[in-house]
Specification:
Length: 534
């Protein structure tokens, strides 16, 4: 058993990460950036306007869907977790200060990768038996690449379902118990002897809290994350800024260390650290992907549930997601550790102790320990909720709707296991499954990159889609649509689509309106016809 675990977390892990995911992030990120004209840079202001700019706008949803912001916060709930705190700490400890630079590079490329995943997920989504919107890599593989690739979709769903127990469950529960136990030991040293009992109690509590939300479905998850994610992120950002501000004279040196170590880590850390440029690059890219999940395709599952105007509009939220998760929160974590001047045991994976020590330089040991424990609880718990949705959707895709409750029960029980499992084993398992699920996802992203480029070009140039209008509408015939023709707006149930006309029924009066179109392809599915609900 031990040799099998070593092979899985060693050989398989190295193959999936070093020879698949990291090269695909680098090559794919550059390729998708060029093909989509660098919209993560050239349209960044527009992205902020369409995402965070609409955060407080009232939005309504139909059956089985959530608002675009709830979809974003659900995805952020899964990504803004221990990867931002523990993961960033590990990147520095294992890859040196320069790992932060490579984390930034991976995030800039990850923006367009995440954008592509979300666009494809919304474009190829469908309704399940309950009427919920479902999508993700398994759906855009089969609907975009064809039924002959069903095996690849099933492979992705299998890897993602298994990964949900690692990145979204075991590692999160483990980080919570580790930080809470550390906090209790600081305040009550005698509690150290009850560490195992406390871990078990925390695991059971987390399992109960998760069950209360998870069994409420996508809408309940969306409502919880809509409140939790902005709240927890804001408070964490405020406290990191206070620490950085308290060590403001060290900020310049921190950036110098980051840039110098990115290319010559041993010149800065010394040969004794054992950290070469390869480690800086690998750990920076690894922890960026672990944090924002760009390339894994997981967040696209949450975005598929959004009641959105179109695929590109929701894809913009994917860009913002990586920016907020990695370029903001991970950077603040890294700077907090570096400017604080705390001792770092290079080559040794830390838990939450490193960031706690950094906070303690300003707030003191007790407050720092308590704050990190609280922050990790909210960050990790939100990740558990987000990944519970991902795993549920993957189990549904593989085994059907009836399997979801069984999966959810197993998922909840695994929280207790994660709360009492060795940290290194948990993170190694999570790393391996992350890398494996990226393999089928990147095959689909490269194969369908033309679809993303076409939809992106049409959206920003305001040109109509080239596919026949009826082909697009038939995907959701029977839904409530809003059709805009010149100065007239029609809103009702779409009943029929022909080459030269649409039939729309008013659900209140039951009156039918026939809309004759001189040229149906002159209409833009993204701009002139919007689905309100189904």
């Amino acid at each position: 058993m031990q040799s099998l675990l070593k092979f899985f977390t060693g050989t398989v892990n190295t193959f999936a990460w070093i020879y698949v995911l990291l090269p695909c992030v680098a090559i794919g990120g550059v390729f998708f950036t060029i093909r989509n004209r660098g919209i993560q840079f050239t349209k960044f202001g527009y992205v902020m306007k369409k995402t965070i700019g609409k955060m407080f706008h009232k939005q309504e949803t139909g059956q089985g869907s959530v608002t675009p912001f709830q979809a974003l916060t659900t995805a952020l709930a899964a990504t803004v977790g221990t990867g931002n705190i523990v993961g960033t700490s590990q990147a520095i400890a294992m890859g040196g200060y320069g790992a932060i630079f490579w984390l930034w590079i991976a995030a800039l490329l990850g923006m367009i990768i995440k954008y592509s995943e979300v666009v494809l997920s919304v474009h190829f989504r469908e309704r399940n038996e309950k009427g919920d919107f479902v999508g993700g890599p398994m759906y855009y593989i089969t609907k975009g690449m064809g039924s002959n690739w069903k095996w690849l979709a099933l492979l992705y769903a299998l890897f993602a379902a298994l990964a949900s127990f690692g990145i979204g469950n075991l590692s999160q529960a483990n980080s919570i118990t580790d930080s809470v136990n550390n906090a209790l030991t600081v305040f009550i040293p005698s509690m150290a002897q009850y560490r195992n009992t406390i871990s078990l109690g925390i695991g059971v509590t987390l399992a109960i809290l998760t069950a209360m939300v998870l069994f409420g479905g996508i809408k309940r998850i969306g409502k919880v994350t809509e409140f939790m994610v902005p709240f927890m992120s804001l408070f964490y950002i405020i406290f990191t800024v206070i620490v950085i501000g308290g060590n403001i004279t060290n900020v310049g040196d921190a950036f110098r260390l980051i840039f110098q170590s990115a290319f010559t880590p041993q010149a800065v850390l010394g040969a004794a650290s054992g950290i070469a440029i390869k480690e800086a690059i690998v750990w920076g890219l690894r922890r960026s992907a672990f944090s924002n999940e760009a390339g894994l395709g997981s967040a696209a599952i949450a975005h598929a549930a959004a009641e959105t105007e179109g695929a590109v509009q929701q894809g913009l939220h994917g860009i913002f997601e990586v920016f907020a998760d990695t370029l903001m929160i991970c950077t603040l974590t890294g700077l907090t550790i570096i400017v604080s001047g705390v001792d770092i045991a290079f080559g040794v994976k830390p838990g939450s102790a490193l960031i706690t020590s950094a906070f303690a330089t300003v707030f003191g040991d007790k407050f720092a320990t308590l704050f990190v424990a609280i922050a990790l609880f909210f960050f990790a718990y939100s990740t558990i909720l987000g990944w519970s949705l991902y795993g549920t959707r993957c189990a549904e895709y593989i085994f059907g709707m009836k399997s979801t409750k069984f999966y959810q029960v197993i998922y909840i029980l695994m929280i207790v296991v994660g709360a009492t499992t060795s940290l290194d084993v948990v993170w190694d398992i999570a790393d391996t499954f992350n890398g494996l699920m990226a393999i089928p996802n990147f095959i689909a992203l490269f194969a369908l990159s033309g679809v993303v480029a076409k939809l992106t070009k049409q959206y920003f140039q305001k040109k109509p889609v080239s596919l026949p209008l009826c082909d697009l509408l038939r995907q959701n015939v029977g839904g409530i649509v809003k059709v805009t023709l010149t100065s007239s707006v029609y809103k009702g149930e779409l009943e029929y689509c022909a080459d030269q006309y649409l039939v729309v029924r008013d659900p209140k009066t039951n009156a039918h309106t026939v809309l004759f179109l001189k040229d149906v392809e002159s209409l833009s599915f993204e701009n002139d016809i919007q689905y309100v609900s189904n």
